[in-house]
Amino acid sequence: MAKLLGLPECFLTSSPGGGVIQGSASESALCALIAARHAALEGLEGTEREEKAAKLVVYVSDQTHAIAEKGCMVLDIPHLRVVPTIRGKADSDNYGLAPDDVARAMAEDRAKGLVPFCLMPTLGTTSTTAIDPLRKLVAVAREQPEHVWVHLDGAYGGAAAVCSEYQHWLDGVEGCDSVCINTHKWLLVSFDASLLWVKDRRPLIRSLALDPEYLKNEFMQSALNYKDWQVPLGRRFRALKLWFTFRRFGATGLRAHIRQSVALARQAEELLEKDGRFKLFVRARMGLVCFYVTFGGRELNEALLRRVNESGKAFLIHSVVDGVHFLRLAIGGLEVDTWHIENVVNVLSEALTDVIDENPKWQELQRETFASAA
C-alpha cells in the first residue's frame, strides 16, 4: 500500500520505519502522540521529566480533526496550540495552515518557556478538504532547536495519492515522522482499517513495549511484534479485508474509484450552481461538495438540512467555518454514478422550494435576493 501511495522507502518495513494497521485515525494519532512525547522526554527522570512534560505543546490548525484534542486529553498533554487559518493564505481557495503562522506560534511559545514537540498537518480536512502545505510546515518543524514530531493526518485525502495526478499533495512527506491514511474512507475497505506509517519505529516501540513473562517466547526477536505498535495487546485480523479489497479492485480499480468521485463532485457543483439559489463555499478537489443557500442565513440552511435528512432520500451533515454555516455532500460510494448526483441535487432543490414556500419571511428574502441580482 505504501508503494501504491508513492510513500518513500523510509516508511517501508524493510527500512528502520514501517507500517501497522490501526482501527481509526484517532488511534493512529494517539500512537503518534505517545511516540512523540516519549521521544521528547527520553532520558529524563523525576522532577526534570515532570517539568518538561508540563511544557510540551502540540500544534494544529482550527480545521484539524478533533483527534488531536482527544489525544491530548487522553495523554494529559497540557498545551494544544490551535493556529487560526485564513482563506487562501496557504491553500488557494481553502483554509490551509500557513507555515509562517506556525513558526510565529512556536517562537511565542518558546519565549514563554514552553517546548514545541508535535505538529499535526492535514491532507484533506474534514470540513472543507483543505490541504496543509506539507513541505513548508516540515521545514518550520526542522528549524526548531528540539525535534518536533510531524504527524500527517491524511485519513481522507491521503487516499487520493493512489492517483499520480494527486501525489504532489504528499510533497514533503519524507520529512514527516508518521503518516496516517484511512482505507475505510475512500479506498473501499469496510470500517475499521487505518494505516499508520512511521519513519523510525524505535520511538513508537520504546514507548509502548511491555514484555511480561507470559508473553515471552522464542520468536520475540525474530519477527515484528505489533503489540508494541499500538495501545491494545490483541489485534483484529484487519489485513484480510484489505487484501481482498485490493485483490478485487487492484490499483487500476482504486484509481478509477477516486477519479470517479472527483468527477461526480464536480458534476454536483455544476448542478447546484445551475439552480441559482446555492453557492459553493469552497471548490471541490476531492469527493466533498460544500455549499449553502445564498439567502436566509444559518436558519434556512439548517431547515433545509433537516428536511432533506428527514425525507430519507439523502443524508448530509453540516459544518461551520469562518462563521458560515454550510452543507456537505460526501461522494465516495462504490455504486454512485451520475444519476445519483442528479437525483440528490433534485432532492435538495425540491426540499428548498418546499421549505421556502412554508415561510413568508424566506419567500420575501428570495424575491429580494434575485431582484437585486437582476
From TrEMBL:
Modification sites for N6-(pyridoxal phosphate)lysine: K185
Gene Ontology CC annotations of this record: cytoplasm
Gene Ontology molecular functions: carboxy-lyase activity; pyridoxal phosphate binding
The entry's keywords: Decarboxylase, Lyase, Pyridoxal phosphate
Alphabetical list of Pfam families matching this protein: Pyridoxal_deC (PF00282)
Requisite cofactors: pyridoxal 5'-phosphate
Gene Ontology biological-process entries: amino acid metabolic process; carboxylic acid metabolic process
PROSITE patterns assigned: DDC_GAD_HDC_YDC
Family: Belongs to the group II decarboxylase family.
Protein name, UniProt field: Tyrosine decarboxylase
Organism, scientific name: Phytophthora nicotianae P1569
Taxonomic placement: Eukaryota, Sar, Stramenopiles, Oomycota, Peronosporomycetes
